[in-house]
Amino acid sequence: MNNIDQPTILIVEDDEGLLKQLCWHFDQYEIITASTRAEALTAAKQYTPTIILQDLGLPPDPDGVSEGMKCIQSLLSLQPNCKILVMTGRSEEKNALRAIELGAYDFFPKPINTDTLDLIIERVIRVHSLEEKNRQKRISSSSSIPNLITADPTMLDVCNLVRKIAPTPITCTILGESGVGKEVIAKALHNLSERADKPFMAINCAAIPDNLMESELFGYEKGAFSGAIKQTIGKIEAAEGGTLFLDEIGDMPPSLQVKLLRFLQQRVIQRVGGVKEIEIDVRVVCATNKNLKSMIESGDFREDLFYRICEMEIDIPPLRNRQGDKTLLARHFLDRVNQENNLNIKGFTEEALNAINQYDWPGNVREMENRLKTSAIMCNNNYLGMDELLIEQKAEGVSTDQLKTLKETRTHAEIGAITQAIAATNNLSAAAKLLGISRPTLYDMIKKHEIPLS
Ligand SMILES: Nc1ncnc2c1ncn2[C@@H]1O[C@H](COP(=O)(O)OP(=O)(O)OP(=O)(O)O)[C@@H](O)[C@H]1O
Questions:
Q1: Domain boundaries defined on the chain
Q2: Span from the CA of 320 to the centroid of ligand 1 (angstroms)
Q3: 320-448 is classed CATH 3.30.1330.30
Q4: With CB atoms counted within 10 Å of each terminal CB, which end of the chain scores lower, N or C?
Q5: pTM metric for this prediction
Q6: Ligand 1, atom 9, residue with closest C-alpha
Q7: Per-residue pLDDT tens digits for 92-102
Q8: Nearest ligand 1 atom, CA 180
Q9: For residue 145, pLDDT beyond 60
């Protein structure tokens, strides 16, 4: 990724003499040059410049501004965070203002006064560096939950709830499809509580055979059954003082549901084969992707246990329903894979990013994490593309869950686009430009849809 303290400057200028002069003047920076829109786009993709100095008169319209304006728009849709400084002729103020409307950051007149240009560049570097730091801070602190990245309003509500109930002894059950981050939330409940320095013990009720589950949970005394060669404590006892996370609680065998209920009511256990009652102080957090209420109706889950473990339910939405999270998480995982494997993949191709946003991610965040890990390792280019991502693009057409009223569809699309633009730019002016609307209109829409800004 771009080093914000050592900026890269892309100069887009078709006048060779001026180009040389600028390169010579800015020899303390990393400079890339381009003399056409196509070259500028290729260079922007490859080097992610911080600043772009761009002439408005570019071929095939060197005496007009049409190509220059198009170049600004294309560069900004590719690199919404870069700062474009437009070079204009003395009498081109109107064009300069149009360029600013399109998203350019500033303009300066030709012939170039290098002292003025130096001042502008220094200011732009400072602003860009601050914005970049804020963007990074916002991503890591938006949820204020360690290891949980989100910008989705529903998820941010979940994070608020987690912070509120973490310090309490409430028994929570986290509901949601596989891979949505239920264990991340369970760990957050532990880490944000006073029990944080005590153990967090997780047990996956679906992964342990029924006949071993009781000894796994409650432990056993020596000689309790053949093979019990020494006294062994179970997960509940091992979690003493901390948190016990019962994952896939819907798979708990009925015989053990009674024993678990007794433990939750009396807070004592007996090891298998033992007679002594052992007092235990643990906070219990459960999770499931099953519908416990219908399991109660079919007689597969005890109603009394349900009420014990669901003093508070925390519902985690699937990734496909979260606004802005697909892009945010994809970038987060790509950064992580880059770091962990010493790679330097700069981002996604436009096609790949569209595919990431259109795909439903049935395996949720886990699927995305794994997919990006393998794709990045296969990637030999600067940008991760469709060849590595291997996501099938959705066929055109209307799925049943798209059959909403026109108003609902529009509202959903507006909220999604606004949240994504803000997540991508972390700057309301740039977001408005990216969306092709004015800043006041963006404010009105944020207010209308009650979109949170932090
Ligand atoms: N919001 C998030 N930000 C970053 N990483 C996340 C997020 N949510 C989930 N993950 C990562 O995705 C993976 C799956 O998350 P987790 O195990 O918590 O899901 P789960 O809902 O408990 O899955 P299962 O139901 O299969 O047990 C983990 O590696 C986790 O770190």
A1: 8-141, 153-317, 320-448
A2: 14
A3: no
A4: C
A5: 0.64
A6: 181
A7: 788 988 999 88
A8: 21
A9: yes
